[in-house]
Amino acid sequence: MDAPMKAQHLGRSIYRLGSLLTRNNSVGTAGERTTCLRLTAKKLHNPIGSSRKPLLLPCRQLSNLAEQFQAASDARRQPVNVHTVFRTEEDDPIQQSSAQEGLFYTVPEGEVKRLFQKGLSVQFTRQVKTFNETCFMVRKPALEVIDCLKHLDLNHPAPRFLLYGNNGSGKTLTMAHIIHYCYRNKWLILHAPWPSDWNCRYHETSPSPHKAGRIDLPVEAAEWLVNFRSQNADFVRDIKLSQRYVWTKRETAEEGSPLNEIVEFGLNRMKFASDCVGAILKEVRNQAAMHKIKVLVAVDGVNAFWNMTTIKNPERELLTADQLSLVHNYKKMLLSNWTHGAIVCSVDAFANARDHREKHYPHYLLGKEGYKWLDPFVPVHVPDYSEKEAYSCIEYYLDRNWIQHEAAQTEEGKKELIFLSNRNPFQLMRICSSK
Amino acid sequence: MATSTMRRLCLLKVSRKLARCSTAVQERCALHTSCMVSKAEDSSSSSVSGTSITSSAVPDNLIKGSMQPKTFTKAQKISRAMQAYMERAQSYDKMIKKEIDEYDIGKRHLANIMGQDPDLFEQEDVDRAIEYLLPSGIFAKKARPVLKHPYEVFPKRKAAQFALDGRPFHSMFYTGKPNFYSLLLNVSMKIEELKKQEDKLIRKGLLHEEAEKKLLLLGSEWITLPSLKDLTLEPLSEHDHKHFTVLLGRLTEHPLAFKEEEFIMKHRRKLMLQSFAEDVPKPMVDDQGRAYITASGKRKTSIADVTVWTKGTGKITINGQSIQYFSYITHREQILSPLQLTGRLGEVDVEATVEGGGGTGQSGAIRLALAKALASFVDTDTRERMRIAGLLTRDVRRKERKKPGQKKARKQFTWKKR
Amino acid sequence: MEGMSSVRKLCFAHFRLLRLSFDQTAQSRTFCREAALYQRSRHQRNITEISEEEEFRTYEIPGLKIKDDTRYKQRKRRQIPPPRYRQMPIDQDWTNVWPAASTFKWSVVPFPVRQGYVETATENDGVIPPKYANAELMKIPNFLHLSPAHVKKHCAALKEFCTEWPAGLETDEACQKHFPVEVQSSDYVFSGPSIRDPRARTVTVKLHLSDLELDYHARDKFIRLVGDCYNPDSDEVVFTSERCPLKRQNDDYIRYLLTAIYFESWKKEAWEDEKAEEDMEKYFWEISKSKDTVIKLLQTTKEIDKASASAGDQKLQYLPDDTSEESLLALKEVQEYRDAISECMNDGEDDNSISKYGQAVRKLLGIRGGVNTEAAS
Questions:
Q1: Cβ A416–B336 below 8 Å, yes or no?
Q2: Lowest model confidence (mean pLDDT) among A38-42, B230-234, B348-352, C174-178
Q3: Which residues in chain A are contacts of B346 at CB distance < 8 A?
Q4: Which of B303, B296, B320 is nearest to B362 (CA)?
Q5: Which of A11-20, A364-373, C16-25, C155-164 has the lowest mean pLDDT?
């Protein structure tokens, strides 16, 4: 992507904001619209790169309309609130503390590619692509869980953390933040990005070769394997199998061979991918007990494990998620009968069926069975943005030129955005985008 | 003989015209009944039907001192028409008098029924008593039982427009709308007068001195057709009203129009100051010393009750939920608008209960209720701005009904040739 | 007197005519004969008259001579008296004139009330229709109400049938306390041929559950037995019966029902002890799986702590050496956890109860960190 293209990309202007202000022009509240492009030899911000690096951009060099627009909007920007801090230099989640709360930190490109191939929402991924950088906000729930992980006694049975909160309050991103911390801290990550997909958005099903009555999802299992391999590239090489696995008469995984072998096998023989997932989970559980590694189990929308699937058995009855071999194996990881690890899950109303989405509380979403399975867990509330966080987020969007309306610079404009979004992160994102 | 026939024919024409006028007079328009001063002394007591006053149609036996129809002179004929008019006026007076008597006695009866003092029984007491004794749930208030003074019940009539000799008082009598046309004439005379004055000033070179003086017409509009009818007591059409406004507009456009300000303002109606007039409820104070007020609003089929507290944190509750009760941004913006206009965003707490209708209706209802409540907290200037912005006005639009033979309210079925 | 007789005659003639028409078949021939006889006799009489007068017969052109129409003149109608209200004195006693609520009568109501919607000046000359023959005023909602004087008079008349309100039942609370069972039924009065109404048989009995003497088990059983009749929000039990044809029978049935259910709920059958966790009326932590999990978890943790040689601050300090179930259950941390989870399950979840639960779990599992941020909020 060359520079002008990027600029054009950013040039998407959003006029949602302040539509009311412009409407009330007659009353006399709205500001004037400046139509001319005032191009002076001012210091202009580079729209793409870091905004902290000023770039001198003479008029002649403005090649296309998007750049001119960009430059003009930058030039017009009032010096109000420019110095509001919304970013932190502290890119390492290990070092972050409540001092950085409400600020954005940038995740390096390479780590994003490695860690978050699957784990982020579609809307956020799109935004990341547009902004050309991945920024997470340092928020209290993530700091809380990370702090707990820091003080964890790994010899004890793995504790369970359950993130809960409103729709769009940032549970997935909190989890991503935690995963990032664990990655930096050399944890092995068992991440199930959205197991609700296993229930209803599967590609194909096949009966399990390992146990009759179970259903395999080969494609999903393979996807998980790929994600696992990219997230834990080092561990996959280092961990040696503690037992022999026999897939067929000819195909076996010998004791002492690296974990990578199972992953490769699962990807090559998709039929056994689900069983490979089971084997990996079992191995990881055993290896953790042998004090070799720290394990993070992360499941987003864990309540999907106790839901119905859309798969039908030969008797035309809907199966429960329990009958999927993937879910069955993963559920074993959620019990605290193993050590040297931690379990971080989130409950999400969207992982439930449409008629069970009224509340966002754990017991309601998990149901009796799920609650019994996870109890005792540490509930971690993921709230909507606080005042500071909301302003910080708007500043970030302004910095990215994502909001281009002049009124967004003003205090009233920001208040309007906060009012309309009710400080809900997802709502704020939606309101500030054209979609 | 021939001449006399001719004369008779002429007379007939005149009297027919007269009759037409008098019927028109009877149909519409009012002058205070007290204006009905009897101009002729020799009024007879017999009654004549109002619509048949052509000379041939009047029955002989009804005219006092009946004469032979063939020997009527012009004066006699005219006096007969006048006589007929006087008779009608008298019978009307009589009827009104009777009605008034009955009203007075009835009022005393009503006071007796309600066990109150008849001498202190006012019209408000009468209305209250009627509502108590004859309760009616009819939607139109006009259609409910009433007991009113006959002056209010019977429409007023115009007095005689011509003297005993048959000559109309007004020079424009034969136009049919003498008052109206004299008004128009008056206006055009004034325009001419102003033109003359302007010429004079131009000649003296003093026109620029008068340039600063302007006629301020803001905040008022020309009187409507019904009020114009009331003013002239004549049946006027839309077209007449247009004529009137155009002519007066021409007068106001004149640079010296301010000289006729008094005359012009007589024909204009004051706008505005509506919300000044209506008294805004005063906020109450709760236990924590916060002022609060409750207001209700409607839109489509939704009804909302909104309570607004000052010194708040900007918390919004709608049926126990946050602003996310509305999933569309447009609906949230509806609620935002009054807060934004008054500059109270983030300063007041709002609690709303709303029921009925859908998102648009509910948000609109909340908006109206919220604006009404906020109006109690803001100064008059802001309130006026709110009113002009339409925040304090109920949106009366409703869903249009579906029509048979059509798909929706307006949409037609697909047309197929066969 | 003369008038009377003429009337009687007329009646007779009429009666004869009627008879004639009734048995026409029998007498038709007779009638014909009689008619012919009558004609003949009349003719003869005419001849004799003419001969008596001896005058020249004139040709009468029909329509030229003025007929004597006195014969056809109608009888005088009875003079309609002026409406009653004209004779009323202004200080009359209205309750005597209009003793009870009834339909509007224009001739009795002494004030010129008007009703009707007049849209334009041309309609009815712009005048609201007066009360005479005004159907609008006669419609049901417009019946003339009783005046305050009426109400006073009616109350005075009813007073002798009233008994005194019992002492000690002045307030609603006192009534509720002394008469906790409320029986409702309705009687219907209407102008029909039957005095019965099927709706009259319905009987409703209401009582508050707290007014019954029940222990925990009996209360639970009572609620289960009555099912939908119990409203937990108002703590009210409502029985309604219309199964029997008579009100009395329904009343008896409900009384029987209430008695039977009450005594039944005090009984405890042997099978009631077999109640499993799912059958419980609410969440009991002691029999739940949660208890087993927690005990097992704590026991494992203690074993690990014992085995490991690491520093003391990493261990769960509060755990006693004796890890039997009883000693663990007696621990403060476990009890706190029990209360927290019971609150969550029984009183419903909210942010408050969940955070309480979180605190309890943190203490139970000895999870450190993240607390200061929690406390900051």
A1: yes
A2: A38-42
A3: 415, 419
A4: B303
A5: A11-20
pTM to 2 decimals? 0.67
Shortest Cα distance from A422 to chain B (angstroms)? 6
- Of B336, B341, B385, nearest to A419 by CB-CB distance is B336
% chain C with pLDDT above 90: 49
What's the confidence (pLDDT) of residue C34? 60
| Full residue range of the structural domain in which residue C245 is found | 172-274
How does pLDDT run across B364-407, given as a tens digit for each residue?
999 999 999 999 999 988 998 998 999 999 999 999 999 999 99
pLDDT at C295: 92
Residue among C344, C367, C372 minimizing CB distance to A363: C344
CB atoms within 10 A of CB A144: 26
Name which of A164, A156, A168 is nearest A379 in CA terms. Answer: A164
Listed in sequence order, the residues at least 6 apart from C141 whose beta carbon sits closer than 8 Å to its beta carbon are B135, B136, B137
| Whether C176 and C147 share a structural domain | no
- Same domain as C255, residue C291: no
Question: Which of A24, A29, A420 is closest, CB to CB, to B332?
Answer: A420
Q: Is residue C1 part of a domain?
A: no
Residues B193 and B231 in one domain: yes
CATH number at residue B308: 3.30.230.10
Q: For the packed helices C2-22 and C24-53, what is the interaxial angle rounded to 10 degrees? A: 130
DSSP A160: E
- What CATH number is given to the structural domain containing C264? 3.30.160.20
Count of the separate structural domains present in chain C: 3
Alpha-helical regions (H) of B254-379: 261-266, 274-277, 329-342, 359-375
Does the distance separating the beta carbons of C145 and B115 come in below 8 Å? no
Q: Is the pLDDT of residue C9 over 60?
A: no
For residues C341 and A123, is the Cβ–Cβ distance under 8 A? no
Judging contacts by C-beta atoms under 8 Å, the chain A residues touching residue B385 are 27
Nearest in space to B335 (alpha carbons), one of B314, B310, B363? B363
With an 8 Å Cβ cutoff, are A151 and C369 in contact? Answer: yes
Average of per-residue pLDDT across A300-304: 93
Q: Which residues of chain B have pLDDT under 50?
A: 1-68, 275, 277
- Strand order across the A295-300 sheet: A188-192, A295-300, A341-346, A160-164, A378-381
Q: Do C293 and A376 touch (CB under 8 A)?
A: yes
Instruction: Determine whether the interchain pair C370/A147 forms a contact, defined as Cβ–Cβ distance below 8 Å.
Output: yes
pLDDT band at residue C11 under the 50/70/90 scheme: very low
Question: Using alpha carbons only, how large is chain A's radius of gyration in Å?
Answer: 25
Touching partners of A (3+ C-beta pairs < 8 Å): B, C
User: Are residues C268 and C310 both part of a single domain?
Assistant: no
Distance CA C343, CA C186 (A): 44
Task: Share the mean pLDDT of chain C.
Answer: 83
* B chain contacts of residue C142, beta-carbon cutoff 8 Å: 134-136, 145
Q: For residues A322 and A197, what is the distance between their CA atoms, to the nearest angstrom?
A: 14
In a domain, residue B222? The reply is yes
User: Is the Cβ pair B145, C142 closer than 8 Å?
Assistant: yes
Instruction: Count interface pairs A-C at CB distance under 8 A.
Output: 91
Nearest chain B residue to C119 by CA: give it. Answer: B142
Lowest-pLDDT choice from A128-137, A338-347, B52-61: B52-61
With a threshold of 0.90, tell me whether the complex ipTM lies above it.
no
Instruction: Give the pLDDT confidence score for residue C48 in this predicted structure.
Output: 59
CB contact under 8 A, A420 and B333: yes
* A:B CB pairs within 8 Å: 45
